């Protein structure tokens, strides 16, 4: 049994079923992200784990204890909110010390722990400030310190970075991960930013309409998406139609070119199926793999480090691909004829 | 707190003089009909009829009858302000945090708007019709429960009756003012406190009440002034059988304007001072409570 | 959760009892003029009383004039302070709060001392003067409410842009205020106006001390001399207050609707 165990969690608001049979086990010290579009139920699951929302059915247990019926203030869970939610009437130090004071610890003990936490988040001099005197990034750090000060068993973060601007978001992201590793605290991190989820997490849960579509390491999620939704939601993707020639043997025709897949494909001969292909696995020119398709450059987007090129393939359809920018080479010209190449191993057959 | 920002006239809008004409009437009006009359009273309180500076008028305030009138007024205002705050707070908390249906909240807010303005003469009539000797509740208690309200010493024309009547506009005023403040308490604060192990009481003591403190104090001062200056309700309810400060002043103005206007000045001055003190206490406490807002 | 709900219902129920009983009592009493039967007799008597008609009409007229005076004073001021003199804000806020702090009876006492027959401006000496004084007094009483609602209204619109747009089309100040600003804060002005109406219509102290026979003193006189009519009057006054507040709600809702559609 995992350290944090979420079993068959369901939640309905009236007739509206928001979370449907959510099951997940998280190991001690693991960092798990919930990733999904707005309204898919991430926050609701998190709040049920935190004890702020009672599940319609299902159970949550921490370290073998069933906490489903326990009120939030007895669960030993730290929570960080998108809007920081620092207490405006307390100084930074009082905010961080709040959980300790409530637990009835002594003044000296609290002061020591507060200093330690402020050191941890890199704001040791700001203890006597009030929240309104801090920037958003500083406030969120303090909120993190406040959540961690009473040594919770689990840390829950609900989109802690979405209210911040891009630069701070990246630096704070690294800092949260560093602190989490240092303390070895079991963490759930909710986000709808895939880059955040992929870069920070040990495992990612991709949620869609109240269901965990896929649970896996960032590598698995990105490279082996289990459902069409996951494939489309995480990263950019080419969706290509192909004709199925022999399902069992994995023979298909892609833009008129015969291709053999690694695996058997679902469906029956003569059907059209969808294949997914990451832009970065396609090479401009030959030499990128066993499949070569002729075409013509349709669009060129210069994104800085990479150039995204869309090629209309002769056999029909178009494929986007990424090439690295090189200072001594001009981007391709629109209308120019090109070959593109790819490996059959990178083609993903999606469940419908 | 307010900060003073001076805006320089922008070059694009040269007709600055004209906009002074826009605000001048207001200031002239305020001067003539608010500031000067008040100042006149303040100055008058320190002058004798011959125009010499004196403390004699204020000394007359210390006569037992006037002193007791002020004392009753202060008690009445303080009591109804505190009770108004308390009950108003409970009702506001019930409709904001109590999980009551939304339409009920709106209905209560609308009613509070009406009730807080339903002061003065008609309100006194309503209470006489309800708690007077032949009033609705008096009769109800006698016929249905066998309780003789007036036999037990109650009288609507009394301190208690007046306090009950004042609460009718004090409570709704509190509800109107404190409801937005309660709605400004963010759900996340409560949840953050809970996740840190705080009980509901600890959350209220350490976060919610301190956050609400300035609004509570402000409303308390406002309710105090509100009750302290209420004359019409008191006169319509008690005639002049209950001697409270504004009624004494009323009688002074009516009767002795020519006799001893300077005693009137002194009473009016003392009334201003008391409401001003209430507000200064409020401002001071508020400044201390709001360190985290500056 | 259910425990909290229970307490909330209890608080609201007790509050409801306290607030509804006087209304029921007053209504009940007003219907008892004829022995043994419920009737509207008290209302009939009151409404037919020429004194009632005269004082009530007078108070309504005075309330309307107060509203007009209030708008003329407050709208330009609030507008120019927002647009041009933000530095005056604290002063204005202080002034508009004063009427809530200084008891009205003190203010009217000041009037009587300053504007009496032996002063430079003997307003209390003439019928016109007294009415003007009463009007100004009521405008002072309504200042806090008028100013607050208008200022709130101005905050929600971008007056700087509106003004510049109007100026660029060649409008002068009076026209900008009347044609551009006023319609945009109309609903806020109305809120202030209805509140003013509710306050002024039954006001007693100013009128009594300035010896004006308006609705307030009339009610007090009735209270001293009749038994059932005062309750009928109270019901009428309550209905007026209710109507004013209801209209405020109505217009506010209407404005939300119209801004949502914009
Ligand atoms: N208290 C509530 N009452 C009714 N419906 C709710 C409540 N809380 C959430 N919902 C609904 O549940 C669904 C999931 O909400 P949730 O907040 O979990 O989404 P989310 O994945 O966190 O979205 P976001 O990324 O926008 O934060 C939404 O459709 C929302 O409208
Ligand atoms: Mg959410």
UniProtKB/TrEMBL annotation, chain A:
Example of a GO biological process term: quaternary ammonium group transport
Domain ABC transporter: 4-234
GO molecular function: ATP binding; ATP hydrolysis activity; transmembrane transporter activity
Domain of life: Bacteria
Pfam families membership: ABC_tran, TOBE_2
Gene Ontology terms: cellular component: ATP-binding cassette (ABC) transporter complex
Keywords assigned: ATP-binding, Cell inner membrane, Cell membrane, Membrane, Nucleotide-binding, Translocase, Transport
Family listed: Belongs to the ABC transporter superfamily.
PANTHER family reported for this sequence: PUTRESCINE TRANSPORT ATP-BINDING PROTEIN POTG, SPERMIDINE/PUTRESCINE IMPORT ATP-BINDING PROTEIN POTA
Identification of the protein by name: ATP-binding component of ABC transporter
The species this protein was found in: Aminobacter aminovorans (Chelatobacter heintzii)
UniProtKB/TrEMBL annotation, chain B:
Main subcellular location: membrane
Cellular localization per UniProt: Cell membrane
Listed SUPFAM superfamilies: MetI-like
Keywords recorded for this protein, A-Z: Cell membrane, Membrane, Transmembrane, Transmembrane helix, Transport
Bilayer topology term: Multi-pass membrane protein
Source organism superkingdom: Bacteria
Membrane-spanning parts: 20-46, 66-95, 107-136, 203-224, 230-251, 263-285
Residue ranges of every copy of the ABC transmembrane type-1 domain listed in the record: 70-286
UniProt similarity note: Belongs to the binding-protein-dependent transport system permease family. CysTW subfamily.
Identification of the protein by name: Spermidine/putrescine transport system permease protein
Biological source species: Aminobacter ciceronei
TrEMBL record, chain C:
Record-linked CDD domains: TM_PBP2 (cd06261)
Primary localization: membrane
Domain ABC transmembrane type-1 intervals: 56-251
GO terms of biological process kind: transmembrane transport
Membrane protein topology class: Multi-pass membrane protein
PROSITE patterns attached to this UniProt entry: ABC_TM1
Keywords: Cell inner membrane, Cell membrane, Membrane, Transmembrane, Transmembrane helix, Transport
CC per GO annotation: plasma membrane
Transmembrane among keywords: yes
Stretches that traverse the bilayer: 7-27, 56-80, 92-114, 126-147, 185-212, 232-252
InterPro entries: MetI-like (IPR000515), MetI-like_sf (IPR035906)
Subcellular localization(s) per the UniProt record: Cell inner membrane; Cell membrane
Family listed: Belongs to the binding-protein-dependent transport system permease family.
PANTHER family from the UniProt entry: INNER MEMBRANE ABC TRANSPORTER PERMEASE PROTEIN YDCV
Protein name: Spermidine/putrescine transport system permease protein
Organism per entry: Aminobacter aminovorans
């Amino acid at each position: 049994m995992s350290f944090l165990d979420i079993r068959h969690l369901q939640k309905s608001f009236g007739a509206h079923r928001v979370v449907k049979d959510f099951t997940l086990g998280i190991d001690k010290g693991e960092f798990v992200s919930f990733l999904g579009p707005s309204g898919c139920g991430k926050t609701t699951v998190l709040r049920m784990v935190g004890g702020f929302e009672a599940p319609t059915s299902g159970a949550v247990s921490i370290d073998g204890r069933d906490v489903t019926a326990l009120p939030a203030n007895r669960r030993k869970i730290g929570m960080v909110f998108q809007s920081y939610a620092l207490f405006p009437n307390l100084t930074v130090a009082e905010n961080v010390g709040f959980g300790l004071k409530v637990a009835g610890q002594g003044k000296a003990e609290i002061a020591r722990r507060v200093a330690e936490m402020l050191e941890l988040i890199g704001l040791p001099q700001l203890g006597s400030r009030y929240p309104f005197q801090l920037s958003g990034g500083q406030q969120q750090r303090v909120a993190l310190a406040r959540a961690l000060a009473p040594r919770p068993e689990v840390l829950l973060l609900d989109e802690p970075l979405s209210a911040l601007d891009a630069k701070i978001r990246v630096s704070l992201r690294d800092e949260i991960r560093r602190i989490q590793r240092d303390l070895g605290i079991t963490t759930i991190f909710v986000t709808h930013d895939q880059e955040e989820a992929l870069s920070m997490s040990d495992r990612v849960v991709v949620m869609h309409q109240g269901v965990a579509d896929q649970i896996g390491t960032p590598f698995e999620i990105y490279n082996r998406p289990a459902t069409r939704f996951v494939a489309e939601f995480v990263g950019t993707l080419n969706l290509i139609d192909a004709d199925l020639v022999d399902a069992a043997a994995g023979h298909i025709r892609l833009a008129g070119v015969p291709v053999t897949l690694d695996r058997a494909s679902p469906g029956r001969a003569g059907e059209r199926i969808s294949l997914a292909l990451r832009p970065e696995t396609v090479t401009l020119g030959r030499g990128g793999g066993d499949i070569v398709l002729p075409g013509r450059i349709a669009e060129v987007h210069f994104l800085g480090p990479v150039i995204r090129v869309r090629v209309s393939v002769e056999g029909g359809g178009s494929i986007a691909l990424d090439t690295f920018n090189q200072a001594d080479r001009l981007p391709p010209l629109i209308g120019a004829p090109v070959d593109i190449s790819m490996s059959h191993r990178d083609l993903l057959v999606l469940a419908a | 707190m307010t900060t003073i920002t001076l805006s320089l006239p922008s070059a694009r809008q040269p007709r600055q003089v004209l906009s002074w004409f826009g605000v001048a009437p207001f200031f002239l009006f305020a001067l003539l009909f608010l500031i000067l009359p008040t100042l006149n009273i303040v100055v008058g309180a320190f002058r004798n009829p011959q125009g010499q500076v004196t403390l004699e008028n204020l000394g007359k305030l210390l006569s037992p009858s006037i002193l007791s009138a002020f004392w009753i007024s202060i008690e009445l205002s303080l009591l109804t302000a505190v009770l108004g705050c308390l009950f108003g707070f409970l009702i506001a908390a019930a409709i904001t945090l109590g999980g009551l249906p939304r339409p009920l909240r709106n209905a209560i807010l609308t009613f509070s708007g009406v009730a807080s303005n339903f002061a003065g003469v008609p309100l006194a009539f309503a209470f006489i019709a309800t708690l007077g000797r032949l009033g609705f509740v008096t009769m109800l208690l006698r016929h249905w429960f066998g309780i003789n309200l007036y036999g037990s010493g109650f009288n609507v024309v009394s301190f208690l009756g007046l306090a009950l009547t004042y609460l009718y506009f004090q409570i709704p005023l509190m509800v109107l003012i404190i409801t937005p403040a309660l709605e400004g308490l963010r759900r996340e604060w409560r949840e953050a406190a809970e996740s840190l192990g705080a009980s509901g009481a600890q959350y209220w003591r350490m976060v919610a009440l301190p956050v609400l403190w300035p609004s509570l104090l402000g409303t308390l001062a406002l309710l105090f002034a509100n009750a302290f200056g209420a004359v019409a309700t008191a006169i319509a309810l008690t005639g002049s059988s209950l001697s409270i400060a504004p009624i004494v002043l009323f009688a002074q103005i009516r009767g002795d304007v020519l006799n001893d206007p300077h005693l009137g000045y002194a009473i009016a001055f003392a009334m201003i001072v008391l409401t001003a003190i209430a507000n200064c206490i409020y401002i001071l406490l508020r400044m201390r409570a709001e360190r985290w807002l500056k | 959760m259910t425990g909290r709900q229970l307490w909330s219902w209890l608080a609201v129920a007790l509050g409801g009892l306290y607030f509804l009983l006087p209304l029921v009592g007053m209504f009940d009493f007003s219907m008892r003029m004829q022995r043994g039967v419920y009737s509207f007799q008290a209302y009939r008597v009151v409404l037919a009383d020429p004194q009632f008609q005269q004082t009530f009409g007078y108070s309504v007229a005075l309330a309307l004039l107060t509203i007009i005076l209030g708008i003329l004073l407050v709208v330009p001021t609030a507008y120019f302070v927002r647009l041009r003199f933000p530095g005056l804000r604290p002063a204005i806020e202080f002034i508009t709060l004063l009427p809530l702090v200084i008891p009205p009876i003190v203010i009217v006492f000041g009037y009587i001392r300053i504007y009496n027959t032996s002063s430079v401006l003997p307003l209390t000496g003439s019928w016109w003067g007294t009415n003007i004084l009463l009007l100004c007094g009521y405008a002072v009483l309504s200042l806090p409410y008028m100013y607050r609602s208008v200022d709130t209204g101005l905050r929600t619109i971008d007056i700087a842009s509106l003004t510049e747009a109007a100026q660029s089309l060649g409008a002068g100040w009076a026209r900008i205020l009347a044609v551009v600003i006023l319609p945009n804060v109309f609903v806020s002005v109305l809120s202030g106006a209805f509140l003013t109406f509710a306050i002024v219509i039954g006001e007693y102290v100013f009128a009594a001390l300035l010896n004006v026979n308006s609705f307030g003193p009339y009610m007090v006189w009735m209270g001293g001399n009749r038994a059932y009519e005062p309750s009928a009057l109270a019901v009428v006054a309550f209905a007026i207050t209710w109507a004013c507040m209801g209209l405020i709600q109505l217009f506010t809702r209407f404005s939300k609707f119209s801004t949502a559609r914009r």
